[in-house]
# Entry
Amino acid sequence: MQFSVNNMTCGHCVRTITTALQDLDAHAKVDVDLVSGRVQAEGNFTSAAAVAAMEAAGYLAAPEVDSQASAAATTCCGHCHT
# Structure
């Protein structure tokens, strides 16, 4: 899962976000990119739970849509009838 997270500026932010997500799943993999404002997380939790945990930690977070999946979902050859 990838998230856009506002107001991350330092190592403290990285630790806080990581801890918030690892409180949901102690074995979660969390990668915080301060420059892009994105968080990549893999763990045993839903996207909604991750957003709620980051918001409870003081950060406005939103899930990002997988650009490849959304492109595939919106691109059609015109022959589909479903």
Q: What stands out?
A: The beta strands are 2-5, 29-33, 38-42, 61-63. Residues 2-66 form a domain with the Alpha-Beta Plaits fold (CATH 3.30.70.100). The longest helix spans residues 11-24.
